[in-house]
Amino acid sequence: MMSFYDILELDCMKGTRLLAGKDNLIHPVQWIHIIYEKDISKWISKNILVCTDGMEFSNPEKDLMQILYQLHDANAAGLIVLIGLHINVISKRVIALAEELQIPLISMLDGNEARKMISEVGNACVRSQKNDIRSDILKKLLYFPQNDKTRAKYRKILFPNGEVYIPVCFEVDRDENTGNGRSAQWAQRHMFSLLRKESRVSVDKFLCYRENDFCATLIPSYETDTNILYEKMDSIRKEIFKKTGCTFSIGIGKAVSDIDQVMQGISQARAAVDSIHMCHKRDTVRMYEKMGIYRIFFSMSDDRQLKQISANILGHIPEEEESQSLLETLNCYILNGCNLTKTADELFIHRNTLKYRLNRIREILGEDPDDVNQNFRLQLAFKIRKYLEMKAQRA
């Protein structure tokens, strides 16, 4: 379903002014109704956008305020007021009430452009509802097994002319700036909008699926050069931060050209996002093809071999409270390139304490982290542990 933010991006809305409710532009819009009277309770319902010219108003300020309360009670999408013959101006009291109730309020000059706007918004809502069906298909492909009949049906819808898509997944990087949801959803809307523009896809043909902070989409492939695609995604990431203050981790999977490849492609893009987090990074774009050793982890269907490898390397350190500090120390030492000063500073310990712990680790494991080959084995073990921990959290 479209949001109020999507409505504002339509060409027909260029002559409008947003007066209030900018923090609620993520509100879904199902349909638009034009009304003339002040008692609209019987005409409106959840997610309906109302447009009025005030033809039957006796007191525009009072009647608009009454309408705003009714919209709030119905959880409607917002209000567009046509300025002209019946309403000359929207008062400060009306604007203040709309802001208080967090109802998007828009003004527009009445006339032929306004009538055209109503028609185009209605058409956009219809196209969006068709797109909801396509997005539901994407969800079903990701989470539910398909038989030959449904695969053939979905192939006809998504790949009628041999289309090729690039799977892209992105996830909001949570911190104190993203709050509990509204700012993150606002950032997601910006992301979808920029992806649509970049891929030159209309609202009704844009394939996306959203689940909390995680989003998956299929965008048409116009570029064969993966470096160009990477640069475009990185540019979008930077623009999103400028507009919203939110950062995203973005993953790109391999191109898909058939219905049977969709789930694998999305899984690859999701794995690229997860690998960003595993490397303690954020606000980054990563391609599945450039994940390095993490591609091996994500491609394995049985984690028991990974657990065994990690246990063989690190399992000699006993599972007790002191051992946790040893594991933490070893991991920090490796991540800091075996630099004593950097590691001691990061752990807030004395260099002599660090040297003591490293000697204990050498005694227990029989391996020296400073040796190139043994350092690689230890890095591998910690990467496996991180992967398994994150996978358990996802389950």
What does this molecule look like?
With 395 residues, this protein is of the alpha/beta class. The chain folds into three domains: 121 residues, HprK N-terminal domain-like (Udp-n-acetylmuramoylalanyl-d-glutamate--2,6- Diaminopimelate Ligase, Chain: A, domain 1), CATH 3.40.1390.20; 155 residues, Alpha-Beta Plaits (2-Layer Sandwich), CATH 3.30.70.270; 91 residues, Arc Repressor Mutant, subunit A (Orthogonal Bundle). The protein is 52% helix and 14% strand. β11, α8 and β12 form a beta-alpha-beta unit. α2 runs parallel beside α3. The longest helix is centred in the first third of the chain and has 32 residues. The mean pLDDT is 85.
- What gyration radius follows from the Cα positions, in whole Å? 27 Å
Biggest sheet character: 5 strands, mixed
Structural class, from helix and strand content?
A: alpha/beta
Topology pattern, helix = H, strand = E? EHEEEEHEHEHHEHEEHEHEHHHHHH
What is the topological layout?
Elements: E1 2-3, H1 4-8, E2 17-20, E3 28-29, E4 31-35, E5 48-52, H2 60-74, E6 78-83, H3 92-101, E7 105-109, H4 112-143, H5 148-158, E8 165-172, H6 182-199, E9 207-211, E10 214-220, H7 226-244, E11 248-252, H8 262-278, E12 285-287, H9 294-299, H10 304-314, H11 321-335, H12 340-347, H13 351-365, H14 372-394
Parallel strand pairs: 4-5, 5-6, 6-7, 11-12
Antiparallel strand pairs: 1-3, 2-7, 8-10, 8-11, 9-10
Structure summary:
With 395 residues, the protein is α/β, with parallel strands linked by helices. Helices cover 52% and strands 14% of the residues. Helix 2 runs parallel beside helix 3 and helix 10 (304-314) crosses helix 14 (372-394).
